[in-house]
Write a structure and sequence with these properties.
The chain is an alpha+beta fold and 141 residues long. It has a single domain, classed as Alpha-Beta Complex (Sufe protein. Chain: A). The chain is built from five helices and three strands; from the N terminus they run αβββαααα. It has a three-stranded antiparallel sheet with strand order 1-2-3, with helices on one face. Helix 1 crosses helix 2 and helix 2 packs parallel to helix 5. The longest helix is centred in the C-terminal third of the chain and has 19 residues. The radius of gyration is 14 Å and the shape is globular. The model has no long low-confidence stretch (mean pLDDT 95).
Length: 141
């Protein structure tokens, strides 16, 4: 993926984030995530049903990297089984930490493959992903 495509994906998801805005529905699992080193604070709502991610919503105050990464995460994980989502999440973490990962699984999330060159931005890119991982782990326990 070239630099222009990466910038385009990040900008599109920042300016027009997917599923932004919370709803009043008790069937969703909710979590608040914040980055103590900057302004990023994101509320996630996830609907898990029949071992699948049926819906993800988010809202909050966050930088362009955090907002766009959370939006890309939503696009990437919607409709996936819990197992598929866990594999994608682990591959995203590996990419951010410059470890081996499967590019095909990450789709648009590959736009963040250079974030490791900016260590202070890693948390921004990871915040939403950490939130959904916590929700999945809580649901499985």
């Amino acid at each position: 993926m070239d630099q222009n495509m990466k910038r385009s994906i990040i900008l599109e998801h920042y300016q027009h984030p997917k599923n932004k805005g919370l709803i009043d529905d008790e069937t969703y699992i909710k979590i608040n995530m914040n980055n103590e080193s900057c302004i990023d604070e994101v509320d996630l709502m996830v609907k898990l049903e029949d071992n699948k991610i049926k819906d993800i919503r988010f809202d909050g105050e966050a930088c362009a990297i955090c907002t766009s990464s959370t939006s890309v995460m939503i696009d990437t994980l919607l409709g996936k089984t819990i197992e598929e989502a866990e594999e994608i999440i682990n591959n995203f973490y590996n990419m951010i930490e410059e470890k081996l990962y499967n590019e095909e699984l990450l789709e648009q999330a590959n736009a963040y493959n250079d974030i490791s060159k900016q260590p202070n931005r890693k948390k921004c890119a990871l915040l939403g992903w950490w939130g959904i991982e916590k929700i999945i782990k809580e649901k499985n326990n």
